[in-house]
Design brief:
This protein is mostly helical and 137 residues long. Helix content is 61%, strand content 0%.
């Protein structure tokens, strides 16, 4: 048999749970509490095991340094830009350095940077003023 001192506030809380009918006895409340602690500790142990495994994998060189990955991605996409000048993607049509500048900017900045000047000869072209309002012909 186990005995536990909970302190006044916790003892009152347990008594209120039993009085409201949520639990049948003080022992049920304590068992439920211990089960919750057990579940939390099991989850923590599982997470710790996963983190340990990930650290071990990274230390055995199964991973790659972030600089190496980002450098490879930069090279890959710059090569795509050079090899596909007919692309219709506005970011791919631009210089790779300028395209990198556009990443992370507010959408309005990017939109204004990517929007070509209005071509009055194009049937769907709409001229805009400095406030980005349409100019009627």
């Amino acid at each position: 048999m186990m005995s536990a001192e909970l302190g006044t506030s916790l003892e009152q809380y347990v008594a209120d749970l039993v009085a409201r009918g949520r639990y049948g006895s003080k022992s049920e409340v304590l068992r439920e509490g211990v089960r919750l602690v057990q579940d939390r500790e099991n989850e923590r142990a599982a997470l710790t095991a996963m983190l340990d495994e990930a650290i071990n994998q990274s230390e055995t060189e199964l991973g790659r340094p972030a600089d190496e990955v980002f450098s490879g991605l930069t090279d890959k996409y710059e090569a795509m830009v050079r090899s596909k000048p007919e692309s219709t993607d506005p970011l791919l049509l631009r210089d790779p350095v300028e395209a990198r500048w556009l990443v992370g900017r507010r959408s309005t900045d990017v939109q204004s940077a990517l929007t070509p000047p209005a071509d009055p000869s194009h049937p769907h072209s709409v001229a805009r003023d400095a406030s980005d309002r349409r100019i009627r012909a």
